[in-house]
Amino acid sequence: MSKIINVLLVGVGGQGTILASKILTHVAIAQGYEVKMSEIHGMAQRGGSVVTQVRMGENVYSPVIEAGEADFIVAFEQLEAYRWAHFLKKDGVLIVNTQKIVPLTVLIGAATYPESILVDLKERVECFIGLDGLKLASEAGNAKATNVVLMGVLSKYMDFPADSWQNALVARIPAKMLELNKKAFAYGVAMAK
Amino acid sequence: MNTLMTGNEAIARGVYEYGVSVAAAYPGTPSTEILENIVKYPEVYCQWSPNEKVAMEVGIGAAIAGARSIVTMKMVGVNVAADPLFTVAYTGIRAGLVLVSADDPGMHSSQNEQDNRLYAAFAKIPMLEPSNSQEAKDMVGLAMEISETFDTPVMLRITTRIAHSLSLVELNDPIERLVKTYERNPRKYVMLPGNGRARRLVVEERMHKLADYTETVAVNNMELKDQSIGIITSGISYQYVKEALPTASVLKLGLTNPLPSGLIKEFAAKVDKLYVVEELEPYMEKEVRLLGINVIGKELFPPYGELSVRMVSEKISGQPVITVAPVFDAPIRPPVMCPGCPHRGIFYTLKQLKLVVSGDIGCYTLGAMAPLEAMDTTICMGASISAGLGMIKAHPEMAENMVAVIGDSTFLHSGITGLMDVVYNGGNLTTLILDNSITGMTGHQHNPASGKTLMGQAAPQVDFVALCKALGVKRITEVDPFDLARVKEIIKTEVAAPEPSVIIARRPCALIIKNTEKPLQVQDCTGCKMCLKLGCPALSFDEVNKTIQVDQALCTGCGLCINVCKFKALRKAGDA
User: Fold this and answer.
1) Residue A112: which residues within 8 A CB-CB, separation 6 or more?
2) Taking CB atoms and an 8 Å limit, are A111 and B363 in contact across chains?
3) For residues A28 and A117, what is the distance between their CA atoms, to the nearest angstrom?
4) Where is the Pyruvate/ketoisovalerate oxidoreductase catalytic domain (chain A) (predicted)?
5) CA A147/CA A52 separation, integer angstroms
6) Which residue in B has a C-alpha nearest to residue A45's C-alpha?
7) Percentage of chain B surpassing pLDDT 70?
8) Which domains does chain A have, with CATH numbers?
9) pTM for this structure?
10) Is A43 within 8 Å of B443 when comparing Cβ atoms?
11) pLDDT per position as a tens digit, B254-308
12) Chain-chain contact of A63 with B240 (C-beta, under 8 angstroms)
C-alpha cells in the first residue's frame, strides 16, 4: 500500500464527475487509504472543461496529479480524453466515454473537433477502453447515470473488492435512484470484462 | 472514520466547533463555499454582505460587541476591506476576529495574483497558513485563541489548493458558544488621532509579544532528517516539499506573521544548504535574508503561478524527473454563457452597434469572448461605471459611442458610487444594469436585490429604479433582454441622449428558473449561420445537411435566435 494511486476524472461541466469522485473516494477511504482530492471550480462551471484529481495511498501529501503521473484517467467525453492524455503514466489505464460534446469554439467555426481522437489514443495507450457510456446508462434507465457506468468500468481495473463499490453506491446515491445506478454500474462492470 | 473535506468545508466546521457566532462575506472564488457550509450549522449567524468592506465591518462590530466572528473573502476582496482592516489592527477586539483571505495563485478564476501575506505584514496582524483541511479547521480555533490573547484581528490565509482540495478531517464536538457582554471603551475604539497614536504603540508592543510567541507555537516546527538540505516552507508548498524531498529537513511554518527569527536561525545553523519554497512573492525569503542568512528561493522558483511536486523536485535536484508524452492538439473548451442566458442578447446587440463597452466582473464578463467579443475593459468589481466616466472625460465624444455594463450584484457591491459620480460630475454615460436576480458566477448566492438572505429568510429587495432615481439619474428604462428589437432601440436612444442614463435589463438567470419552454425546431434553414453569432451552445451547423441543428437537450426555448433568423427557420415547437 506504499504506492500512491492517481486517478484523474475529466469531463465537461454538468457531466457528474463530482458524484463519480465521491463514489471512488468512499471506496478508497473504506479500504484504509489516505485520500486527497483536488477540484477546481469557479469559472469552470459554465460548460468548461472540468477535472477532478483523486490520489490515494498510505501517505499522500500533494492533492494534485501532474502530467505523466495518472495511473487511471476516466474521461467522460472524447475531446477531454484527448486534452488530458499526456497526464497518463506510461502503463496507465485510459477509460473513455466516446460521447462527443462539441465546445463553443467548434460550434462557431473557430476550431474543428479532431476526427482522429480515438485512433490516436488507441495508438498511444496500451490499456485503452472506449465505450458508449451514455447508451449503457440510457439502457439502465437514465442517461445521467453515465458517470456510474464509468465507475463500473474503473472498478474492474482497480484492486478493490467488489462489495466495497456496492457499499459506496449505497452510501453516496439517494435511495430512490439506487437500483437504477446499481444496474448502470453492473453494465459498466460487464463492459469491462 | 475521518471525513473527507475541502479546506473551505473544514473552516466552516472550525467555525462550528470553536464557538464562532457571527460570519459575514461577499462571495468570491475560491472562498465562496466557506459561508455556504457555515449556513449548514444553524448555531452560527451568517450573512452575505453587499461587499467585502461591509462584511469586514460587520465582523468588526460583532467582535467588538463580544462575539467570536469570522469574515471570508477572495484575495482581491481584501483590497476592498483594507480600510477597516488596517484600523481594527489598532483598536483590537473584545472577542476573536478572523479574516480568511483566499488567494488564487495561478489565477484559476481571478483578475490578478496578489499575495495577501503582504497584507498581514502591512496591517501588522498575525497570520496563519494551513497546509491541509485538518489544519484549516484547527487553525480557526488557534486564530481565535491568538486573537483573544493578543487583542488583535488574525488573518487565516489559504490558497485555491487548500480551499478546493479535499483531505481527511477529524471532527470534534463544539465548545460552548459564549458571547461576552458589551463593554464601552471609547479610548480603545474611537480612532481619533489622539487615541490612534496611543493604539499605534500598542500595535508595536503586540508585535513584540507575538514575536516571542511565534518561536514556541506548535504550528511552527522543525522536522529534522537529512541535514544536507533544509527547507523553510508553509501552506500547500509544504505538501509539495514533503512529497518531492521526503528525506530533507523541513522547517514548517504555520504562524507566518511574525516569522520566528530564532527558530529560523536555529534551523539554518543545522542544515548545509537552505532553501525557501513558497508560492508567489519572496515573503519569507526576504525575512530570512534580513536575518543575514544565505538562502536560495526565487532564483529557482518563479514569483508567479503555482508550484508543484515536480517543480520542487526538479529545481532542487537540478534534474528532470520524467519525460512526459506530447500534448495532443485539442481545441479549448472555455466556460460559456449558458443556453437561455439573459446576458447573451445584450452583448449581441452591443457588438452589432459597435459600441465601446466598459465591462465589469460576473458571468457577463464572458461577453468578452468569441463570438460576442463585446467588451473593452474589465478591471475590478464596480469599475465599469467609474472607468466609463473617465473615458468620457478623456474623450467627451466617446459618450455617444459607449456604455458601461454591470450586473445586479456587482452594482450593489461597488457600482452605486460610480453612478453617483457620473451624475454629480455630469458624464453622459449610459449604464446597463444586467439584473438576473442573483450573484451568478460564484454559484447563485443571494444579494440585497434577490429577496432572500443566506439563512433563507425573505428580505426586502433593492428597487433599482428608485435607487438610480435617488442618485439623480433622470433617464431610466427597463427592458426584457430577450426583446432584442426593443433592446437595440433603447440602447441607441440612450447612448445618443445628452445626459446620464440607466437601462435595467431584467430577467432571472436561466439556471434559477423553472423552464417551461420546449426546445426549438428548425425548418427550411438556408445555412446562413447568422444565429451562430449569438454563441449559444445549443446551436451548431450540420456540415452534411448544411443546416443549423438545435441540441434538444441543451436548448431552453428562450427564442433569442428566432429574433436573429431572417428566414424564420427557427421556431417554437408547434408553431407553423
Assistant:
1) A106, B331
2) no
3) 31
4) 13-189
5) 13
6) B335
7) 99
8) 5-191 (3.40.920.10)
9) 0.96
10) no
11) 999 999 999 999 999 999 999 999 999 999 999 999 999 999 999 999 999 999 9
12) no
Nearest to B310 among A66, A107, A117 (CB): A66
Question: What is the distance in angstroms between the CA of the first residue and the CA of the last residue of chain B?
Answer: 62
pLDDT tens digits in sequence order for chain A, 193 residues long:
458 999 999 999 888 898 999 999 999 999 999 999 998 764 545 678 889 999 999 999 999 999 999 999 999 999 999 999 999 999 999 999 999 999 999 988 889 999 999 999 999 999 999 999 999 999 999 999 999 999 999 999 999 999 999 999 999 999 999 999 999 999 999 998 7
Average pLDDT value for chain A:
93
Q: Does the domain at residues B520-572 carry the CATH identifier 3.40.50.12780?
A: no
Alpha-carbon gap, residue B560 to B576, rounded angstroms: 18
Residue of A nearest to B529 (CA): A108
**A84-97: b or e for each residue (b if 16 or more CB lie within 10 Å)?**
bbebbeeebbbbbb
Residues of A in contact with B7 (CB under 8 A): none
Name the phi and psi angles at B151, rounded to 5. 55, 60
Q: Which fold has domain B221-316?
A: Rossmann fold (3.40.50)
Contacts of B539 in chain A (CB under 8 A): 107
| Residue ranges covered by each domain of chain B | 2-213, 221-316, 343-506, 520-572
CB within 8 Å of chain A, chain B residues 527-546: 529, 532-533, 535, 537, 539-541
For B535, the closest of A49, A80, A108 (CB atoms) is: A108
Which of A34, A67, A105 shows the shortest C-beta gap to B331?
A105
Chain A residues 70-129 with CB within 8 Å of chain B: 79-80, 82-83, 85-86, 88, 102-114, 117, 120, 124
Buried b (16+ CB within 10 A) or exposed e, B235-253: bbbbbbbbbbbeebbbbbb
- A14 in contact with B, Cβ within 8 Å: no
Taking CA atoms, what residue in B is nearest to A88? B325
Peptide bond into B30 cis (omega under 30): yes
- The ipTM, to two decimals, is 0.94
Distance from CA of A141 to the nearest CA of B (A): 17
Answer yes or no: is B380 a known binding residue: no
B536 marked among binding-site residues: yes
Q: DSSP letter at A32? A: T
Q: Is-contact B59 B71, C-beta < 8 A?
A: yes
The DSSP result for B124-185, as a single string, is T--EE--SSHHHHHHHHHHHHHHHHHHTS-EEEEEEHHHHSEEEEE---PPPP---PPP---
The answer to whether the CB of B51 falls within 8 A of the CB of B24 is no
Q: Which of residues 155-184 of B touch A (CB under 8 A)?
A: 160-161, 164-168
Q: How far is B16 from chain A (nearest CA, A)?
A: 23
Angle at which helices B344-352 and B484-496 cross, to 10°: 50
Q: Cell triple for residue B417?
A: 458610487
Can you tell me the distance from the alpha carbon of B380 to that of B76, in angstroms, rounded to the nearest whole number?
A: 9
If DSSP codes are grouped into helix, strand and coil, which group holds residue B358?
strand
Minimal CA–CA distance to A69: which of B57, B226, B569, B243? B243
Q: How many CB atoms lie within 10 A of CB A77?
A: 26
Domain B343-506 carries which CATH code?
Answer: 3.40.50.970
What confidence score (pLDDT) does residue B2 get? 86
Strand partners of residue B502: B431, B476
pLDDT, one tens digit per residue, over B472-485 is 999 999 999 999 99
**B273, B240 in Cβ contact below 8 A?**
no
Are the folds of B221-316 and B343-506 the same? Answer: yes
CATH fold of B2-213 = Rossmann fold (3.40.50)
Give the number of beta-carbon pairs within 8 Å between A and B: 158
